[in-house]
Structure formats: structure tokens, C-alpha cells
Amino acid sequence: MQSLICEGQWLNPPPKWSLERNALTLETGDKTDFWRHTHYGFVRDDGHFWHVPAPSSFTATVTFAGKYETLYDQAGLMLRVDPDNWIKLGIEHSDGMTNFSIVVTRGRSDWSVIARPLISGPQTVRLTVKNNAALAHFKNENGWQLMRVADFPAFDKAHIGPMACSPERSGFEASFSEFQLTDPIENPLH
Hints:
Pfam families: DUF1349 (PF07081). By secondary structure, this protein is mostly beta strands. A hairpin with a 2-residue loop joins strand 10 and strand 11. The chain is built from no helices and 16 strands.
């Protein structure tokens, strides 16, 4: 299976990025994020998203690493239908803890986290979309760990790919070494 990392295009290109040896590296712009309304009361749609067209059902995986230092530094995978309907999952730094994190947005964002002690090095997340549902996993030493099963309406056109943001600063460094898109896996709950 070949990585799609070299086949994307930007929504909100970062100020510094490169594609070398099938790896995407970037440094985020100042105070970038994807978020809509909930709790904070603002809308931000200026995070960095490297994407390819998404089929109506699929399993996508991305392997990534980041230098998480500041509140809300984040990197991972995004599925985007439009500015009001999207999912992002990956690692997000919050209150000194590195979390596996997922935000599901259907008009308004919601955020779920699974706290993990200061993770470092490459991590992998997976998103499976089929039958009006999105199933998110992260990979740990024991295999795939379920993060969430979310209602996500069917779509005609969407995009999928690596994402990074730094809502409190600029210069968050992230890298993406694998990005794969396949037919939905047989049993996406496990």
C-alpha cells in the first residue's frame, strides 16, 4: 500500500513546510485552529490541512509526530466536508498532558480526549467512515484502541488528510510520514 503523503494540496498553507522522501514537515502559523463556537464562543477555520478527495466510505490512517510544548499544539488527521462539518483526531497538548483527541463538528464543535503521559515519537490514528458513522482509533502497544463512534452524515464531497494547528502560538513543528486511504476495514469497532 502506497502512502498518499505526496499527493495532497493545502487548505491554509503553513508559512514553512516541505515534502522530502515521502514525508511532510511543517511549522504552524500564528494562532491557527479549527473550532466552531462551543465553550470558547469563537469560530476558527485557519488550521493547516493537507488533503486529498475522500470517497463516501473509507478507512484512513496517518502516522505523525510533533514537538508538543504549548497549550493546544495539535497534529493528526482531518476529514472535512465544509467549514461546518468536519472531524479532526490526533494528539493535542493540554494542561501539561499529551492527549489523544478528537473533535467532531456538525455546526458546533465537541471535543473528547484520552489522556496519555507526554507521548513522544511517531503516533498513528485511524478513521473509518461508513453507514453514516465515523469510528476513530489510535494505535498503542497493544494494537488499535477505540476513541469514539460518532454520527456523521453521508456526504457527496469531502477531503481527508494530515492536519496541524497551534491555537496559542506559531512555530509548532509537526511531521507526517504515512498517509493511507483504503476501503473501509471489515470490523471497524476493533
